[in-house]
Structures are given as structure tokens and as C-alpha cells.
Write a structure and sequence with these properties.
The strands form two sheets. This protein has a seven-stranded mixed beta sheet, with helices on both faces. A two-stranded antiparallel ribbon has the order 6-7. With 315 residues, the protein is an alpha/beta fold.
Amino acid sequence: MMSEANLSRYPFQRRCVDYGVYLLVRSFVAFLQTLPDATAMAICRGGAWLLTVPFPLRKSTLDENFQRAFPDSTIDQRRQLTLAMWYHLLLMICEIAWAPRRLHRCNWQEHVQFPDAKSFLKHLLSRRATVLVTGHFGNFEMGGYITGLMGLKTTTIARRLDNPFLHDYITAFRGVKGQKMVDKSGCANEVDRHLANGGTLSLLADQHGGPKGCWTPFLGHAASYHKALALFTLSGDAPMAVAYTLREKLPLHFTLGCAGVADPKLDGPECSGVKSLTEWYSHCLEQAIALAPDQYWWVHRRWREPPARIAKRAA
């Protein structure tokens, strides 16, 4: 919640607008919670068609990303992938709305396959700290929710939303089963304490790391990664696990998978430095995305113009 000092600097007009948006979102979520699966899937297919054909949203970004990732694809293949991606994103919203009412500690095993449970839980349940990384792939929001249902407590770094009412609402959803959210700004000390106490840190790995980030290939093209992800593992002696939450054929049915684990204690080549570890988890994300390319967020600008020295080296 906002402090009194921050509330005093919060203009009344903007407060009214933000609260109005919050009420609209809550009303929309309430509507989604009433929908049966078949109806919701039909609405999502219709919405995907609208966002692909008559009202193409972020078309230039999608075309640019597909050109990079799938240079040999045809126009029809890209259109089909765009349709499938929008369907996934819209259905993802429905699943998030449904989760508090349909998923609980007594039935989550009916909705989740966990093929790598033994190796995955070996690290998550150990007394050592663990760095859990994922990407904008599958229903990553449900990944945090499901691990909470399993009794696994995680701390996740996320940017604070501009709308404080929505921020508190979404944070409450994320934390209802034990996931703790910390603000991206000024969280270093809290994260260090969490890892020092053997906690699990959860992060989205495929966010732009800026010009000074670690530039490494992602789907064949240079992309910037935040160096902090690798440093959390290397400096904290914390194994890094690359996880994903892949939706299966039916809504609210997932495979919770692990694309790989890098442990600094094993002295593997992937843990020889920030660059090698970043390349390793970037490759793991590529392997996960290859399982279902339509469940990746192609709408966000993953690739940016690299600095001159990086572009020269890549050339």
C-alpha cells in the first residue's frame, strides 16, 4: 500500500483515473471467472483473429521478431503463429483469473505434470540458495502460483506498476500462495539477505539488459541480458535452474519443466564466468521455446540495436 507521504503527492485526478481502471480490471476478471472453458476458448480464438487480421496489434514488432527468429518462414506461417500466440496470451489471462477458484492444494496434481521433479526439487528443497530463471514463455505467472501451491516459497523481482491499485491487486494474487514480490528498484540488499539465508530467487531472464548488459546470441541474434542473474549464482554459490510452465491442450493444464541446472560447485564450463553462464541459460530458454513457439511473447522487443563494438564482433 502507498505510504501517507506518497499519497499526498498523488494527484486526486490521477487517483480517480487509476481507481477507475482498477475497477474495470476487477470487473473484467469477475466476468472471466464466470466463463466455462469452451466459451472462454472460443472468445480467445475470436480475439486472436481480431488482433491478427482486421486490427493487427504490434504488427511491426512481430514482423521484425519473426524475421529474426524464423527467416525462412512464409507469410502464411507467420500469420498462423501470430494467431496462435494471441490465442495463448488471451487464454493466459483467463487462466490467471480462474486460478484462485479452480486450483488449490488438494487438486493441483490433477492439473500439473512434473516430469523433472526429482532433479528439480533436489535443488529447490535443499538448504542452499537457488536461482530460478524463466522467460516470457508459457504461462510463467501460473508457474509462480503453482510452486506456491506445492509449498515452495520464492522471492521474485518485478517492476512496480504505475497504477498503485492494480499493483497491490496483482501483488496480492502473486503472493497468495507464498510468492514474495520485491520491487526491482533498490532490492539488492534484500535479495542478498534472501540468498544468504538459503532462499529461492525467481527471475525473468529474457528482459533487455541495456547497452551495458551481457550481449549473447538468442535465437541466432545478439540480445542483451542483465549481468545480475549470473552474478546471483556465481557470487552466491547458488545453483541456477531454468524452468518453464508449458500449457498442454486444455486450459489450466501445464507441464512444469526444467531445461537445465547449472551448479557452481560442480565446476562445469557454464559456470566459468558471467558470459558463459548467460550463454548457457539463453540456450536453455531457446530449447524450451522450441517445444511450443506459439507460447512465447513475440510481442515484446527482445532484440535491440547493440553497441558498435558488439555489432562489429557479431559481424
